[in-house]
């Protein structure tokens, strides 16, 4: 009940990408179905690996206390990739949101000021079709980025891992893809987003006589961490690389 009338259980999400960081305004009443929709919308924005994300909850009505659970789930799902800094605004009740893992500010200005300006040069994305030349194009972009970032120590592993991820889309998902590359301190991440809901499965070592099946084993050996992010319209498979990670026998 709100202002004497029954409000529909519906949440609208308006995404503003024209700010320093993406801003998502959540408005309406949060119920079970709309909570799932809100979660999906936030993950979709984060799948483009923004440096940070601001969510305005000033227009959100949460009669069942679902918002903290939704935001905590988003926080956990994206903690290792893309690892974006997350901020809430539109609330003065900061204690309520602490379990979600999102710091909160009363207004948008405070949230954006706390996050500061992004460094767009540290995040790169390219869209590719699922053809045999896709991996080569991705390697060229990665090689140039590593040179510009003065991180040529990561070039080889980043190219090998990305080749495996891209070729997996070409061979199995067969959908257009987006290759994402980011540098955060000493760690580089590579990721590939496609429109297939089928997730890669890592089953451990394969027999020496087996044909194929070594792609994920290679990724597991060459990265400090890898995983996938399930989306309403597909998935992202990502990996994080550090300088001292070397190739192990597969």
Automatic annotation (TrEMBL):
PANTHER family: ANTI-SIGMA-F FACTOR RSBW (PTHR35526:SF3), ANTI-SIGMA-F FACTOR RSBW-RELATED (PTHR35526)
Domain (Histidine kinase/HSP90-like ATPase): residue spans on this chain: 131-238
GO molecular function (one): protein serine/threonine kinase activity
Coiled-coil positions: none
Keyword Hydrolase carried by entry: no
Native organism taxonomy: Bacteria, Bacillati, Actinomycetota, Actinomycetes, Micromonosporales
Name listed for the protein in its UniProt record: Histidine kinase/HSP90-like ATPase domain-containing protein
UniProt keyword annotations, A-Z: Kinase, Serine/threonine-protein kinase, Transferase
Keyword DNA-binding: no
